[in-house]
Amino acid sequence: MPDKVFHYSKFLIAVILVGLVAALTIDVERHHVETANTRVDMAIDYEGLQELAQREGLPEDEVLAQAKDAGITSLAVYETTFKKLNENGKATAIAGARLLESYHDGTLTDPAWRNLVEQGKIVGTEAYVTGHDAQTYKEVKEDLIRRLGTDRVTVLQAGNQEVLAVKAHYESLLKMNLGMPTDEMKKVNDAGFYVLARPSNYEKCTDDDVKAVFARLDGFKISEIVFSGNQTLGAPGALMATIDEMKSRDLTLGLIEATTQLQFYKQDGMEEIAKNLGYDRVARLYSIPKDEQPKLKIDTAVERWANTDMERNIRIDLLRIYDKPSPNMTLMETNMKYFRDTHDALVQHGFTVGPSDTFASFYPSKWLRGILMLGVAAAGVLYLSLVIPRLNASRKWQVILFVVFGLLAAVPVFMGAGSKIRVLAALASANLFPSLAVIGLLDYIRTKRDELTKHLIPLMVTAVIALFVTGTLSYIGAAYLSGALADTEYLLEFRIFRGIKLTFVLPMVLVGIAFLQRFDIFDGRMDDTDGVVEQLKKILDMPVRIKTLIGLAFVGLAAIVFVARSGHTSGMPVSQTELHFRAMLEQAFYARPRTKELLIGHPAFLLAIMAFARKWPTMLLFALVLVATIGQGSMVETFAHMRTPIYMSFLRGIGGIVLGAGIGAVCMVLIELWQFVLAKAKAAAAKK
Q: Across the 688 residues of the chain, what is the mean pLDDT of every consecutive 10-residue run?
């Protein structure tokens, strides 16, 4: 069989480079959009600060002032309830059964109320509402009628006092939302904060209901609206009213990040509002879970906020108070330190604090995206030509395949559509380019095998340089992946790339096929191998020993763990040791390198160069090359997390290469020492 010398089509490479220019142009535009979005709203529940004041026995105004000085910019105000109103005394709801009981035991002494009982107007299954603050009572009355209707809310007179008789289950009535309280919103604004409004929806919500909610917000400084409950205001039939009211006031919609840290907590109507309002008026909100925060020390929580805002495009930080003091501090001091340290950490990381920034509307040119698609098509054909000898020898068929692939990929995009094609292009970029980078290295070192030094230090330098060059080539895939997907919807995670788990495995398959076309893993022959199919047949025909099966079982288990630990929804736990290691890396680097790169892929890359130069068994070289591919694929796959700024993803990969190269170099030294000791032992044994 003739030598398998694979030629790289200059035409396909030229198309890839042109596509790369288009991809980089999109990526630069994306970077500008991301760097313009740096203002974070540090918010906390108004009720949380009220609770803190009560716990510490301090005036509410003093607590608000200190929170303002510590960096809090918005207070979340929720709809009022009778539970809150009964506590603050501005309105009262009392059960009819209790009134009747008081009448009969003689404790109901007010003649007006006794008269209502005697007239039969007090019913035990109803509730009765009175107001002690005119504005609050007016708002409660308006909202009760709006929610329950006039047939369930009637007006009575107890002497000179107006009373509302409400046909409702008393315990449920206490928890019922009663509209946004203007007194609380005024108190928040007067204290120097913005209001983060948290309205809820109405049953069978109408356009008039929606307008009433927004009318109550008029005149107040509102930073964002974050709807409460599992429905947005207006869902399902009055969403356009909500959209119109928000547009007319230029309000920002805050959406709550899901507990999996992917996309959002589902609220009916949220996607329709976001789409029609404009994605450039949407901000992502995160809050540390209520059951988790008590377990976090202040510095850990502060670090969480900094990382969250940097890595996940969170622009509304909804903090909670600590309900237990830190050592040697009061509860007030504990919380003010928490607020202040969070503020300072955000500023240190380049953020400003205030009403949340939003992304500008970002949808790159269809012409740039179409040219990028042609580059992906060229990469696909180039890969096929590097694993199919007949195709490699036929430039005509390479061009034909490119034309077919290019038309399928680019035409829908040029026509202004192609959202699914873009996802396929991103998937292809994440898998093809790191594979091509490793294959290119294999082909290069095959031609330089006799020139590779076996001496440790020069070999180490060569391996490190090869790692950086291969990583640079892999980054072409990162540029393509980002360019294929980048738009405001992906930056906000309304859309996500769902092929991440596949990108952990497929590059190894692609590289494995190319390797078997170039090397015989059984006897070490190079260039005149039997090819992929014949070697796979040999593998299938091999007799299997029990220890081999056990070894394969461990490999399979490692693969399952490797894939399952990716993403946010696997449920695969992370050890405390690894968490501490990650925390250390986060402190040491601008962006924490990924452990699969610095501890697995990149060290294996250096060892693969060592294995090739020193002619270790080809089966071992094959395994090291596949593991090295993990690192290259991971570098590109990082960019599939579109919510993470592209600059941060870039530096994450660079940090992984630098640290991984260092760890790989240490591994090379250890192997050298181990071989030296073995050689000495063998020499000593031979003398005996």
A: 74 96 96 94 95 93 95 95 86 89 86 88 89 90 91 89 90 90 95 96 92 94 94 93 95 91 88 94 94 90 91 94 91 95 94 94 93 95 93 91 92 87 93 94 82 81 93 94 93 86 86 87 64 71 63 55 50 54 60 80 91 85 91 91 91 90 91 84 74
Query: Are the C-beta atoms of residues 116 and 158 closer than 8 Å to each other?
Result: yes
Q: What does pTM read for this prediction?
A: 0.84
Tell which residue, 378, 254, 396, has the closest CA to residue 318. 254
> Which candidate, 513, 512, 510, 620, places its Cα nearest to that of 612?
620
Long-range contacts of 166-170 (CB under 8 A, 24+ apart): 166/93, 166/126, 166/127, 166/128, 166/129, 167/125, 167/126, 168/126, 168/127, 170/93, 170/95, 170/97, 170/127
590-605 core/surface letters (b: 16 or more CB in 10 A; e: else): ebbbbbbbbbbbbbbb
Task: Tell me if 518 sits within 8 A of 446, measured CB to CB.
Answer: yes
278: left (phi over 0), alpha (psi -120 to 50) or beta: left
Q: Is 222 exposed, middle or buried (0-12, 13-18, 19+ CB in 10 A)?
A: buried
Burial class (CB in 10 A: 0-12, 13-18, 19+), 156: middle
Question: Residue for token digits 């290691």?
Answer: 581
- What is the dihedral sign for C-alpha 308, 310, 316, 322? positive
The beta-carbon contacts of 190-193 under 8 Å, at least 24 apart in sequence, are: 191/61, 191/64, 191/65, 191/68, 191/75, 192/68, 193/64, 193/68, 193/72, 193/73, 193/74, 193/75
Cα distance between residue 398 and residue 370, in whole Å = 20
Phi and psi at residue 221, to the nearest 5°: -85, 110
